[in-house]
Amino acid sequence: MKLKNKILAFTLAMCSFSVAAKTTIELYKSPTCGCCKEWAAIMEEKGYNVNVHHQNDWSEIKKEFALPAQLQSCHSAVIDGYLIEGHVPEADIARLLKERPDEISGIAAPGMPKDSPGMAAPGVEYQNFKVISFSEQGLGLYNQY
């Protein structure tokens, strides 16, 4: 019986740790944008907490992270000090949070790529777009689909 209680206590501790360890995404989007809502749902399914801020103008956030105009998309998200612009796949966000590079401000999927998360039909593979890293020093290819 003691072993059973220890296993139960360990399991409960691990569950509460994983809940506390969830990363929070601050998502800035238009109140009427449906694809942004879909992207948020995907992030929630992957275990992130998503706080949605419905706004018509969040240009100050883009300026704060020195987002180049050519990388803009329909929504912006702030995650642990990085800007995530547009329909960036969760795998790229997870990589960013694991590696935590100092030399970039964030990553972006410019525009609204047809086969990106939140834009692609369910079951369609992400394809035909790039994820770009950015900083005040320049741009770089972060991933390609």
**Biggest sheet statistics:** 7 strands, mixed
Measured distance between first and last alpha carbons = 52 Å
Q: Tell me the β content.
A: 25-35%
How would you write the strand order of the largest sheet?
2-1-3-4-5-6-7
Report the C-alpha radius of gyration, rounded. 17 Å
Structural class: alpha/beta
Helical segment tally? 4
Task: Summarize the helix and strand pattern as letters.
Answer: HEHEHEEHEEE
Helix content estimate: 25-40%
Say how many strands there are: 7
Overall pLDDT, averaged?
A: 88
Describe the global form: globular
Poorly predicted segments? 3-20
Give a description of the structure:
The chain has 145 residues and is of the alpha/beta class. Helices cover 32% and strands 27% of the residues. A seven-stranded mixed β-sheet has the order 2-1-3-4-5-6-7, covered by helices on one side. A hairpin with a 2-residue loop joins β6 and β7. The chain is globular, with a radius of gyration of 17 Å. The model is unreliable at 3-20 (pLDDT under 50).
Report a brief summary of the structure:
The protein contains 4 helices and 7 strands, in the order H-E-H-E-H-E-E-H-E-E-E.
Which characteristics define this entry?
alpha/beta; 7 strands; about 140 residues; disordered N terminus
What's the topology here?
Blueprint: H1 2-20, E1 24-29, H2 34-45, E2 49-54, H3 59-64, E3 75-79, E4 82-86, H4 90-99, E5 106-109, E6 130-135, E7 138-144
